[in-house]
Structure formats: structure tokens, C-alpha cells
């Protein structure tokens, strides 16, 4: 590709594509420069360094994942919303593996504050569980349970870690049934004395 056509957005898109092909942790400025047919130095007019490039990919990936999660949960509640959210996240992890890895990269609070994708993922994560009526800190505990379950399943599935003949889809469906049941029968943490009438907002 011609050097004249390079922009920060094009470089970021190309880096995301490369991440899906070789893994997020394997993207380098040199590999990306070869893809464009330019010297490494040409890319530094658009990204500061490798960390900046990876952060840009993480922001891009978060935006794309947020769009999928939003579409999957729109107009749904309870188990339907839980299932839509989980299936959208799983599909993203399977079809966009490098981008999925990017969404797991820790980023600073300044990046999160400026990233609409990160903000929307957090909002959608809490919102899609609203029908279960969990107060804090139980809602955060529940989200950690879901995230741990999903991430473990995705990583094992992607690496071929499940060797049993049992259908992965069948297991996934049972897992979502179990999570829905756990959320519906959640034992709410006792609130400290004197907080019974305090607002949760």
C-alpha cells in the first residue's frame, strides 16, 4: 500500500486484523509496516509506539464488542438478555480472537474515560443483569462470576482444551442455564446495620 494513504485509523484497523491472524500479543510495528510496505519509521507519524498501537486496538475492539453486545441485548431481559450477551461475547471471542484479547488488556482510567466502547461495555454489563435485582456488592460479585466463567470457557475452547466428545454447544447451554439459576437464587449479602434505609444511588 502507498505510504500517502496512511492514517492513524487505517493503521489501527490493520493492526486489529493482524491481531486476529497472529494474536494480539504478537503484533509489532515492524510486522505492521511490512503489511503496508513501508519502513517502520513511517508508522511513527501515526502511532507513538507499540503500547500506543495496542491501546488503539483495544479501544477499537471495545467499540466493536459494545456494538455486538448492544444488539444482542436490545429489548431483552432476564435469561434472554443473559443469553444474548453471553452468546455475542463468545462469538466475538471466536471470530475476532485478536480483538477479544485486546479487550482483556488493562488500560488506564484516562483511556477508559475517553473510550465510548469501554464505557458502553461496562454499562451494558450491569444493565443486562438488571432484571435479577441484585444490589451491590452482590451485583459486582455476580459480574465477576460471569466474566470468570466466560473467559475460562473461551480460552479453553480456542485452545482446544476441551477433549471430551460432549458437544461444546450443549455444555455452553447448560452453563448459561446454571448461571441464570444462580442469579435468580442469589443469596444477597447482609447489609451492615443502619444501612437499611440508605439509597443505593
Structure description:
This protein is an all-alpha fold and 201 residues long. The chain has one domain (3-184): Tetracycline Repressor, domain 2, CATH 1.10.357. The protein contains 10 helices and no strands. Helix 4 (50-73) runs parallel beside helix 8 and helix 9 (138-159) runs antiparallel to helix 10. The chain is globular. Residues 196-201 have low confidence and may be disordered.
Could you name the key traits of this structure?
201 residues, mainly alpha, Tetracycline Repressor, domain 2, globular, Homeodomain-like_sf
And the CATH topology?
Answer: Tetracycline Repressor, domain 2
Number of discrete domains: 1
Helix content: 55-70%
Radius of gyration computed on alpha carbons: 20 Å
Percent of residues in beta strands: under 5%
Task: Give the CATH superfamily.
Answer: Tetracycline Repressor, domain 2
Summarize the structure.
The chain has helices at 8-22, 29-36, 40-43, 50-73, 78-95, 97-103, 109-114, 116-127, 138-159, 168-184.
